[in-house]
């Protein structure tokens, strides 16, 4: 090889500066890469985001935690962690994901609230074409929800359901995919579409992603990445399309190869009966080459069940598991995120501490306790069931330090609040009015200083009191009122 001529001195100085700059750049890149790797390793636990059903506060975002991926504990005392205040004011199918750098998180969910009285026909054909998005930098402090109208540009789109999102390392952005019911080639049915985004605010035009043959629709689909390509592929996809169909690919947009379904296990999405399930939800086990596919047994109401595999390359490798528990709340279609020790510590510090259960005893009728009955509130003796008189005294939904709210034990997410100065038990709807109506300041008891009275946050001249055993919010002007407005917490 012919050696090049020597460089002039000026050029050598320029080259030295260039090399120094490259060293600095490489050092900076190396530190950043190391920081990112440290942020994501090791994983020590799991966080499940889900909803619980079609009851008043069931279509919101709930969190559950697990150390082993099989036994789950409801966080936030079983109450919702996030409430949608946009669109239909309800969400289903939350998808929880982390940025590759581990410095940002998103929840993307279906904008739908069947509990408001919406019919399934209206929801599928005349529903929201937007998704609901929350954003966080630490998993505990979340932005206000916002709408992302991903399906509005699809001709005849009736909805946008069951969203998922995954980072695409080939392009450096995220693929967001969901199901929309729309006409195409003379057939109206659910198909899966996708867009690309870098910030979950702006996005590309929607494109068709998955379509099944004939009139067969597809709604729920979720992808798991297997970086070491165990089983022969990098990505595996589980879809509810009459069966639970498993497919594989080496790129997020495919091409995809069908590996089979779960009919040999007596599991389907209705096409062949058996255990009819939906909402497939992947979960890689931390620290070992094993995966769980959680399936919602919605037809029988038994909730999620896991099947597991150490090689996703064949559907015959799945086995059923019986060694699991899902906590108190019913878990409906969601997603599972592996947690680092730092993430797990933050999440449990914010939502993992269980608040004690108390009863609220009347001062002047000490055999009676505050209870809800058909969502009305009164003081009664011999309360049955006992949980109707049990509450968790939590930090106030409004107000500053020292304010409290009373959350029902048997209706998590429901609170005592005054409405026209009468008390009811209602779910937190996220509004400022609700939260003010459900917030109180404990003060020394008006009838006995060793007891407690509760002054209204938004009507500070009024207190909680019982009148003819019904709970009210009143101005207190005499000794009877002071006794009626005095209570204490008991175990």
TrEMBL record:
GO MF annotation list: hydrolase activity
Pfam families: AbfB
Secretion signal span: 1-33
InterPro entries, A to Z: AbfB_ABD (IPR007934), AbfB_ABD_sf (IPR036195), GH43_arabinanases (IPR050727), Glyco_hydro_beta-prop_sf (IPR023296)
SUPFAM superfamilies tied to this protein: AbfB domain, Arabinanase/levansucrase/invertase
CDD domains: beta-trefoil_ABD_ABFB (cd23399), GH43_Bt3655-like (cd08983)
Annotated keywords: Hydrolase, Signal
Boundaries of every Alpha-L-arabinofuranosidase B arabinose-binding domain copy: 359-488
The protein, known as: Glycoside hydrolase family 43 protein
């Amino acid at each position: 090889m012919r050696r090049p001529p020597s460089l002039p001195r000026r050029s050598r100085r320029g080259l030295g500066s260039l090399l120094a700059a490259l060293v600095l750049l490489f050092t900076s890149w190396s530190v950043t890469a190391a920081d990112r790797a440290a942020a994501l390793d090791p994983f020590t636990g799991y966080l499940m985001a889900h909803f619980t059903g079609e009851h008043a506060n069931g279509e919101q975002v709930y969190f559950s935690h697990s150390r082993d991926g099989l036994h789950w504990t409801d966080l936030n005392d079983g109450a919702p962690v996030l409430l949608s205040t946009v669109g239909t004011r309800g969400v289903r199918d939350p998808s929880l994901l982390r940025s590759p750098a581990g410095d940002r998180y998103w929840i993307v969910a279906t904008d739908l609230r069947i509990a408001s009285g919406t019919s399934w026909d209206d929801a599928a054909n005349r529903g929201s074409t937007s998704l609901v998005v929350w954003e966080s930098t630490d998993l505990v402090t979340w932005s206000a929800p916002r709408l992302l109208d991903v399906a509005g540009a699809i001709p005849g789109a009736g909805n946008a359901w069951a969203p998922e999102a995954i980072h695409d390392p080939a392009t450096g952005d995220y693929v967001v995919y969901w199901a929309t019911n729309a006409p195409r080639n003379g057939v109206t049915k659910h198909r899966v579409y996708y867009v690309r985004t870098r910030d979950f605010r702006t996005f590309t035009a929607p494109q068709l992603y998955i379509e099944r043959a004939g009139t067969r629709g597809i709604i729920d689909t979720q992808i798991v990445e297997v970086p070491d390509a165990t089983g022969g592929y990098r990505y595996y996809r589980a879809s509810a399309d009459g069966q639970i169909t498993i497919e594989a690919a080496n790129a997020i947009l495919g091409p995809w190869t069908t590996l089979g379904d779960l009919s040999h296990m007596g599991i389907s999405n209705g096409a062949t009966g058996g255990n009819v399930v939906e909402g497939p939800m992947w979960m890689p086990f931390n620290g070992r080459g094993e995966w769980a596919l959680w399936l919602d047994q919605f037809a029988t109401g038994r909730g999620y069940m896991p099947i597991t595999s150490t090689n996703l390359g064949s559907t015959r490798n799945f086995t059923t598991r019986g060694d699991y528990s899902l906590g108190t709340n019913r878990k409906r279609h969601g997603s599972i995120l592996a947690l680092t020790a730092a993430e797990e510590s933050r999440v449990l510090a914010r939502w993992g501490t269980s608040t004690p259960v108390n009863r609220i005893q009347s001062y002047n009728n000490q055999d009676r306790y505050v209870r809800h009955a058909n969502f009305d509130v009164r003081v009664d003796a011999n309360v049955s069931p006992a949980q109707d008189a049990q509450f968790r005294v939590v930090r106030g939904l409004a107000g500053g330090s020292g304010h409290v709210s009373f959350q029902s034990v048997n209706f998590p997410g429901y609170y005592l609040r005054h409405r026209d100065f009468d008390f009811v038990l209602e779910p937190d709807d996220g509004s400022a009015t609700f939260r003010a109506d459900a917030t109180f300041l404990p003060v020394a008891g008006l009838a006995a200083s060793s007891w407690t009275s509760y002054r209204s946050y938004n009507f500070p001249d009024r207190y909680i009191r019982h009148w003819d055993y019904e709970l009210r919010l009143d101005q207190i002007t005499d000794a009877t009122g002071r006794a009626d407005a005095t209570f204490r917490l008991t175990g």
